[in-house]
Design goal:
Elements: H1 3-32, E1 47-50, E2 55-58, E3 68-76, H2 83-100, E4 106-113, H3 119-130, E5 135-140, H4 146-155, E6 159-165, H5 176-187, H6 195-200, E7 204-208, H7 213-219, H8 222-238, E8 250-254, H9 255-262, H10 272-282, E9 287-291, H11 304-324
Parallel strand pairs: 3-4, 3-6, 4-5, 7-9
Antiparallel strand pairs: 1-2, 6-8, 7-8
Helix pairs in contact: 8-11, 9-10
């Protein structure tokens, strides 16, 4: 037997083995994967602290009608140091708005994702200062990952529009004005005054750092730039088309859009943003990307190499599970 014939049989055997393995994986995924996500929530996580009455009250539910104009969801894992500046900036902005428009109502929900430091105590000090109508702390007794924390916060909110913003304060909070302007143009209404119209509309507006990419390229190492471009390619290949920055932690949803998107969200870790936007695109929910100011803040929980590799694997899993029908999207 010649060398080429031998190589041919090796190639055919490897191809058949790989195909058989892939088919086996698909069969197992279809048999053991639940098509729709289940929400893990402990009883202790269903209530928040009301310092005025010194009692615990039940969180609102996303399925209920909106009663405030804006909910801000802040996922926080061991953020005792970075959380206060972010909250100070957000509260200052929102309090000025309430002074200018007394009928305007907002809430901030800090979701402590199983933090082991003083994150909860820090958040509760703000609750005591401003009251639980404006700030609430959702303490998760078990770490869920950023996506899981954001999801549980959104399931507990009261807003007609819902912003989730990272606890590090990397995004300038007043750029919310830019996102709301885009939202209003999509919905043909004023989200700061027309609560019901905003709540029932379908739109997603996301902050983007794509315009800062040239500056970032100059600061990063060649290896990190290669990883970044590789991740962007995988996002485009497996999930979201036409979005330059899926990972910026500054995203605004209408209440109905949040119901539709988070109701089908499976991923709890870093890649949840990509699945979220994938779901929105599949449901034909309009998405607008808006440039926002962004500053690198020390203390990031993302390990560049390991986290990007994990997110890349998650993107492939997202694509595969939706492609074979192991995961499904709830449709209203």
């Amino acid at each position: 037997m010649g060398v080429f014939s031998h190589l041919y049989y090796v190639f055919v055997y490897a191809a058949i083995t790989t195909l058989a393995g892939f088919v086996a994986v698909v069969i197992l995924l279809l048999k053991f994967t639940k098509p729709y996500p289940t929400v893990e929530r402990f009883k202790e996580e269903e209530t928040f602290n009301d310092p005025q009455t010194k009692s615990r009250k039940r969180f609102y539910q996303l399925e209920q009608s909106a009663v405030v104009h804006l909910s801000v969801i802040v996922p926080a894992y061991n953020e005792e140091e970075r959380l206060p500046p972010m909250l100070d900036e957000a509260i200052e902005f929102l309090e000025k708005r309430t002074q200018q428009q007394p009928s305007y109502k907002y809430e901030i929900i800090v979701v402590s994702d199983g933090s082991k430091d003083n994150t909860v105590n820090v958040a509760e000090k703000y609750v005591e200062k401003y009251g639980c109508e404006k700030i609430r702390c959702l303490e998760l007794i078990k770490n869920r990952g950023k996506g899981g924390a954001v999801k549980l916060g959104i399931l507990s909110c009261r807003g007609s529009s819902i912003l989730f913003a990272d606890a590090d304060g990397a995004s300038k909070f007043e750029d919310l004005n830019k996102l709301e302007t885009a939202l209003n143009e999509l919905l043909k209404c004023n989200s700061n005054t027309e609560l019901e119209l905003t709540s029932n509309g379908l739109a997603v507006v996301i902050g983007s750092r794509a315009h800062l990419e040239k500056e970032s390229l100059a600061k990063r190492s060649l290896f990190r730039n290669i990883l970044m471009y590789g991740f962007h390619f995988l996002v485009w290949l497996f999930t979201v088309k036409g979005i330059k920055d899926t990972q910026c932690g500054f995203k605004l949803f209408t209440r109905q859009a949040a119901r539709n998107c988070f109701g089908s969200l499976h991923v709890n870790r870093w890649a949840f943003d990509a699945e979220l936007l994938y779901i929105a695109q599949k449901l034909n929910i309009p998405i607008v990307e808006i440039p926002v100011r962004w500053t690198e803040i020390d203390g990031s929980k993302v390990t560049p190499v390991l986290s990007w590799i994990q997110m890349g694997c998650d993107l492939a899993i997202i694509w595969l599970k939706y492609k074979i029908g192991a995961w499904k999207i709830k449709r209203a």
